[in-house]
Each structure stands twice: as structure tokens, then as C-alpha cells.
Amino acid sequence: MPLAHSTTPETRNLQRRKEASFTQVPSVYLSVYLSICILIQEPEEGPGAIAMAFFITLSLCSVLVVGMGEGGTGSEEGVETECKPGLPPPCPSISPSAQPWTHPGQSELFADLSPEELTAVMSFLTQQLGPGLVDAAQARPSDNCVFSVELQLPPKAAALAHLDRGSPPPAREALAIVFFGGQPQPNVSELVVGPLPHPSYMRDVTVERHGGPLPYHRRPVLIQEYLDIDQMIFNRELPQAAGVLHHCCFYKHQGWNLVTMTTAPRGLQSGDRATWFGLYYNISGAGFYLHPVGLELLVDHKALDPAHWTIQKVFFQGRYYESLAQLEDKFEAGLVNVVVIPDNGTGGSWSLKSQVPPGPAPPLQVHPQGLRFSVQGTRVASSLWTFSFGLGAFSGPRIFDIRFQGKRVAYELSVQEALTVYGGNSPSSLRSQYIDGGFGLGHFSSPLTHGVDCPYLATYVDWHFLLESQAPKTIHDAFCVFEQNQGLPLRRHHSDIHSHYFGGLAETVLVVRSVSTMLNYDYVWDMVFYPNGAIEVKFHATGYISSAFLFGAARRFGNQVREHTLGTVHTHSAHFKVDLDVGGLENWVWAEDMAFVPTAVPWSPEHQIQRMQVTRKLLETEEQAAFPLGGTHPRYLYLASNHSNKWGHPRGYRIQMLSFAGEPLPQNSSMERAFSWGRYQLAVTQRKEGEPSSTSIYNLNDPWTPTVDFTDFINNETVAGQDLVAWVTAGFLHIPHAEDIPNTVTVGNGVGFFLRPYNFFDQDPSFDSADSIYFHEDQNAGSCEVNPLACLSQIAACAPDLPAFSHGGFSHN
Ligand SMILES: [Cu+2]
């Protein structure tokens, strides 16, 4: 759909055109977003010419671009654009793409590695590790290969010394994960390489970080390993059951109409590498996830030589077999009850291609006076907030050095892990416990589609990575940054008693977003910054549900969503690291709640009333500050400095949960320790460089001997006056239902938490917002001098400069 404004003037129907009249805008910047409704009219003559009309509900006039206030990002001053008859002037220049680095600055500390840096590390490793290194894209289990290279985050003390005290920046380093399949004792090694951009040293940190070598069976599965498994399934195994598969599933030579889907964990005990693969119809252009054919294969792929891989068990439409050959024998003997699964192609209701023609365009937010924030490299700055953003290849989105009005409130705010735990009556649904960080929340980020995943005029930023490859690759538009008018008052009061006035503030938020597409599911990750000093962290789930072949007592495990498809019950949860620094590094943990206390009525002591009181407790130890899921927790939990605000209260930031998490896996499960963070809705621990993350990428393939067990972090140390990290779990139970077809919607499927100032300030800092509106009865609210909203009709009558639609592409892997 051509959204561009390159249509001829004749095709534009501008309503309510008015003579240009320039009015001086009262100082600084005006802050109102404007919804412009772009209507696409049906062509009257022939289908080829779509006439486009901009119905701008405001009059046309000149545009004044005013420099933004201190800390703001506007630089032009007083640029005036006169109206041209018949055409609205273009809105002030908006750069839809981020500014590249112009000079190394503060945010470079946390910036993900550039393509040049990734290339330099890879060349250095190739040189150091010798000629036996194989490209991970083609590596077999018995090869040596570089699995990943990403930023090694700097130690916090060194980072702060640089940021706060002007010390030289810490060396910029990379962390490389190398698979040594070709060594006598195959293992995984972690190497720190530095300094960038010209590496000269390499340090093996495996033993220091993990207490010993990393067993080879814990390594993530390479894409090449999946390809080799597919090769084995389709070329060697499926032909052995050609008869039954032809009967049930329209099988033809080597099963081109089928695809496999992996599960995890891969076995039942430490050392196993045996994965149940489900088979699905390969539906082109739509999700295969909803089309199980009822065949699942347990593949043992532990051997270093793929020729030695075997099928250990076969599940077919409710029964287990020793092999595909045995299934075929029983089928030929008439002993298999085959359900024929229709393969009705791509035209079905599950396709994401709507049958409905496009209608009028939805509302669009524009920036009538230009962007009010900047993105330089990975540093975002608005008049209120500054922070750096990035994407861990495995751990996902993260934000550093977060400052409100110039003062740091948090050092790090990062996703650690995403987990889905399934139930079901087929082996692959029963065996599905996905610890997604092991696949890579950054690795599987997807390009953001302008106008769907983020506002059309958001600022989009690419992400570079080096994973399972010898050369860096790019996910275009992996991040978006935008400011959004939520259409909600952040605060307001209309007074009609004693004195007559209105005061209010529109809620505008600054958002950084990325999306991880983990096979079927898409997780939308948001970090949202509010003008009152609050931060919201939230994830939404969308995409396809995971499903299973429907048989037997299926409804105990979910809802039927198609003729042969069961939507299987599961929980989604995510774990977050919240390294708050509330007024400095040393913080305390306070718990507050309420209680009713029976009290004699002071003026009539023979009567009793229930009096509500505040309960207030300073938590001393990590044990006291760990709150199990499902248990009670104080409604107000905040981290505070030992400095007080004007009213004598400790300056704090409250962690307010928004979560409907399902039950965690019972602790007697042999793999629960791999995601023992799920036991806690919230836990506060001392911050330690040696405890950088609550999880490990190796937990996915060996959950029975977890490389990181979060409960180890909680060991009764004091949390009083320490540098603290709050670890937060947010999640929800998902019982898939008919409306999850074709896709789960984000509506109602979003959870997370808020970080909110609690006595941190002396009053609400949004009072000082330049967006504030106030007028009283003696004033003319329609006057631009009194009310900035009244200036909109003069300043905001411009045509948004919409860049041509673009998409980040499909082939980053
Ligand atoms: Cu779900």
C-alpha cells in the first residue's frame, strides 16, 4: 500500500484550508502529538489509481521549529516554513534512522560490537586457535568452531569510574564461545578477547567462571546439527514407513511436505542429547505449528559422528513404537489405526493473509515539531531520560546507565531468560520446557515492521552479531525507539468547587522495543520511560501457539483448536535483572504494607474500631528479601538510599509487579534448578561481578546439572547498605483457545513490572514537565499564550514526511 505522499496535488483533498498565519510560539517546545487521519478513498476511475486524501483536521499555517530545552535534542532554532497554497508544509525534518557514531562517547561502554569489531575478533581467534577451526555454519560435532562472539560487558566499578569520575574507559572486550569438538576431551570454552578494536590478548575464563571445563554435551545445538538430523530423518528414516505415512499424511518421496520441530530438554538425565522432534505439514506462507500429523521421533544425536545417530522411539497418533520399520510392519499387518490428516494447503483460515481488502488507514502519530529525543549510536537522550540500549545474543534486550533528569536511577535493566513449560499427552508436548536463552533471545530477534511492530515514524536501529558464522551479520531494524502519546492523562484535575481551573498532563512515554521470534512464539520486549520518573518493563507474547496431535484425553491438557489439533497448556515466564542505584550504590530494602489493628475509639473508648496502619520493615538478608511465587509479598517493596527527601523519608524506587505467573515446576523435578529463579516473584541480592546473570545458555541442554542455579545467589548475605540487584519474574498461564488461531494476540498477554519513584523526590517531577497544561476560569483557554494546546492549530498543520515503507528482510540466518 503506497503510503508515500508522492501523489499529485490534485489527488489530495485538503479539508478546512486556511490562510497562512504565523504566530509566535511561546518559548521552548510544544509537546502535543497530533493524530492525522489518512483516508484512502476508493478509486472512482479504474482500480489502478488509488486516490489519497489527507484529512488534516487542523488549519494550515507556518511551522516553527524551536530548539529543545536543556537536555533536549533539537538544534534548529526558529526555522520558519511558510504555507504554500494547496499544500501543507512538510513537518520539521525527522530522521527516521539513528545517527551513527560520530565520536566515541559514554555509551560505547555498553554498545554491542560493531561489524568491524566482530570481524577483528574473528580474525584474531582464527589466528590464535590455529588452522583446525571450522566455520560453525558447516561444523560437525567433532570439529572445532567459534560458536559466538559478543560484547563482554565491562566491570561495573570500572564503568562507573569512567562515567562518573572521568577515569579512562575500561578495555573494550569480546566474549567468544568456542566449541572444541576436535580435542581429546571435547569441551566448550569461553574466551575473553581484547582490547578492541585491535585485539592482542585472549584469556580463557571457563574455569574461573564455571569452576571447571564445560562438558561438551551442554553446548547449544548448531543449525548444522539440526540440518544433519533432518537429513537423517528424511533420507534414512521416513522411507522405512512410507506406507503408513502415505496413508495418513500424503507422504511422497523423502517427505517434502513435512517439516520437523525441535523440543527441549533433550533427554532425561545429565549427559543425554536425545530430542523429540514433532512432524508437521509444511504449510507455505503460514505457520506449520498448527498442523501436527501425529508423528514424533526421539532422535539420539549425542554421538560426535552423525552416522551413529539413531531413532530411539517412535510415537504415532497415540502409540509408541520401537522404530519406523516396526510401525510400518504393524501398519501392513492392519494393526495401526490411522487417522488421515487432511493437508489443505495455504488457503485455510489459519493463514495470516487476510481475505479482507484494506480499509482506511488507522490513526498515525506524527511529530509536529520534530523528534523530542535523539538516538546516537546506542545512547538515547530526551529532555528527561538518557540511557544506552543493547541486545545480548542470548540474554536479549538490555538497558544501561539509566538517568532521569541527569541522575542515575539504575545501572542495568535487562532480560535474563524466557521460559515456557508445557503439558500434554504426546511426548514432544510433554517434553517441552524451553529455556529460550539457550537458543538466543538476541540471536532470534526479528526485523521490526514499520507501522505494525512499532509506530511508522519510530526510529529504527540495526543489530550486528556473529553467531554460527565466520562473518558478522545484521538484523535490520532490530530495535525501535519512539515517543508515544498514550491518549491518557498522566495526571489531571478539573476543579469546579471554590476555585475553577484545570491542570493536567498528557501521558507521553519513550519506548525502546525489540522482538524475539523463538520458533513459533514472538516475544515483544518493551522498556517504557515515563515523565514522572517511572520505568515500565513489559513483555507481550504473540505468534503461533505450539500444538499437538489431538488424541485420547487431550482436553486435560488444553483446548481443541482444529479438527486434529490440541492447543497445549503452558506457562510463559521471563526473568529480569534490575540493578537499581537509588541515589548512589548503597541501598536498603524496605517492605511496606497495611494492617488493621483493633483500637479503642479515642473519643468513645467503650467502642472498638479496626484502624488501618502502615507496616514498615527494613529487610536485612537475602533470605528475607526473597519472595516465593504464590506466597504473600509486601505490596510496597522498594530499594532506598540512606538519604532522605525533604519530608524525612528514605529516597526510594518501588518495584511494582504486574504478573499472573503460573505455578513454578515443583522442586522435586530433576530439572527445576535450571530455572530456579522461577521459584521467586522477586528476590533482592548483593550485586556481584561473579553473578552477572541468573541463568546460562548451557542450562537448556543440561538442565539436570545446571551451569547456573539462581538459588545459589541467595545465601543469607546482608542486603543492608549494599549495591543491590532485584531479580524479577513475570509470567502468565496460557491455556490456548480457539481465538489463539491463527495467532495469539498481545491483548491481555502482557506482563512485567514498574519501577516507580517512592519518596525519591519531594513531589511529582512531572509537575515540571514542559507539556503541562493549566488554565483557570478567568483565562482564555483558547489562547495560545495560556494553553499550548491552543497553538496546535497554528504549529501543527504540516504534512508528515513519511518515508517509503521498508522491511528488514527475512534471511539473516
Ligand atoms: Cu502461550
Properties at a glance:
disordered N terminus; globular; binds copper (II) ion; 8 helices; 813 residues; mainly beta; 10-stranded antiparallel β-sheet; single chain; 16-stranded antiparallel β-sheet
Stretches with pLDDT under 50, minimum 5 residues: 1-84
Approximately what portion of the residues adopt beta-strand conformation?
35-45%
Q: What oligomeric state do the depicted chains represent?
A: single chain
How many individual helices?
A: 8
Tell me the overall shape: globular
Distance between the termini: 28 Å
Total beta strands: 39
Structural class: mainly beta
Average predicted confidence as pLDDT = 87
Can you give the helix content as a percent range?
A: under 10%
- What molecules are bound to this protein? copper (II) ion
Largest sheet: 16 strands, antiparallel
Radius of gyration using CA atoms only: 29 Å
Keywords: Calcium, Copper, Disulfide bond, Glycoprotein, Metal-binding, Oxidoreductase, TPQ
Pfam families: Cu_amine_oxid, Cu_amine_oxidN2, Cu_amine_oxidN3
InterPro entries: Cu_Am_Ox_Cu-bd, Cu_Am_ox_TPQ-bd, Cu_amine_oxidase, Cu_amine_oxidase_C, Cu_amine_oxidase_C_sf, Cu_amine_oxidase_N-reg, Cu_amine_oxidase_N2, Cu_amine_oxidase_N3
Domain Copper amine oxidase N3-terminal: 219-319
